[in-house]
Structures are given as structure tokens and as C-alpha cells.
């Protein structure tokens, strides 16, 4: 089934994102920090939120790999969060964080496409979920 291959690819991407979020507390530069509802976190909030979302994304990725039912509601919740986060970022964007329109559109397209695409494929293949 081609959908399964695409879902496995999405699971790899979510696994990489989980690793990235787990590393957010290291804040290697000032512009690195977990973004929660449009606000870049720092300090203790970043230290807590990054790893929590890393665990959630790792569980989600594992659920996709194993085609588990719990992956569907996680996928819908995550896709909704991504959309809300992107919209709120545009209202709460810190000074100096402005990017080009082309980058913003590309980033948004990929973020929405992957998160919503995974949720859609899970929904479309819910009969194969155990």
C-alpha cells in the first residue's frame, strides 16, 4: 500500500522533529527555542516544553510506524496545533525574527502539508489501524 510508505516517511520526519525538540533546551544560539502558540520560549519554559513535545512526537511517530489507532487523534491534534502555532507566530513574532515571504510560505506549506497530510492518511487508512 503506497499510503503506508508515505506514512512511514512522515514518521521519520516526526522522529527527527522529536530529536530537534529534545535538543531545544540546549539553546545553542539566541534564536533557538521551542515555539509554543506563537511565542518562542526560553529559560525553564523552554527546558520543559521542548522535551515534552519531543516525547509526544516520538509516541506519535511510533504510532504511525506501528499503524496504531492512537496515532489518528494525535495526528489531528498535532495538525491543529501546527496551524494555530503558525498563525499565532505571525502575531507574536519577536523583533528581528522577520523572514522573507518566500521562506515563510515554504515553511508554512511544509509544516501544514506534513502535519495535515499525515493526519489525513491516517484517517484514510483507519481500517488498517490496530
Folded structure, characterized:
The protein is globular, with a radius of gyration of 15 Å. The chain has 130 residues and is mostly helical. Helix 1 packs antiparallel against helix 2 (43-65), helix 1 crosses helix 4 and helix 2 runs antiparallel to helix 3 (71-92). The longest helix has 24 residues, at 101-124. A two-stranded antiparallel sheet has the order 1-2. 70% of the residues lie in helices and 3% in strands. The model has no long low-confidence stretch (mean pLDDT 90). The protein has one domain (2-128). It is built from four helices and two strands, in the order H-E-E-H-H-H.
Entry keywords:
130 residues, mainly alpha, single chain
Amino acid at each position: 500500500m503506497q499510503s503506508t510508505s508515505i506514512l512511514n516517511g512522515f514518521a521519520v520526519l516526526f522522529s527527527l522533529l522529536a530529536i530537534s525538540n529534545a535538543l531545544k533546551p540546549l539553546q545553542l544560539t539566541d534564536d533557538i527555542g521551542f515555539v509554543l502558540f506563537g511565542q518562542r520560549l526560553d529559560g525553564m519554559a523552554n527546558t520543559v516544553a521542548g522535551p515534552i513535545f519531543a516525547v509526544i512526537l516520538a509516541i506519535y511517530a511510533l504510532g504511525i510506524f506501528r499503524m496504531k489507532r492512537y496515532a489518528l487523534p494525535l495526528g489531528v491534534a498535532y495538525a491543529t496545533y501546527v496551524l494555530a502555532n503558525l498563525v499565532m507566530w505571525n502575531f507574536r513574532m519577536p523583533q528581528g525574527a522577520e523572514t522573507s515571504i518566500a521562506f515563510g510560505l515554504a515553511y508554512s506549506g511544509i509544516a501544514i502539508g506534513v502535519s495535515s497530510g499525515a493526519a489525513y492518511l491516517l484517517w484514510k487508512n483507519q481500517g488498517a489501524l490496530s
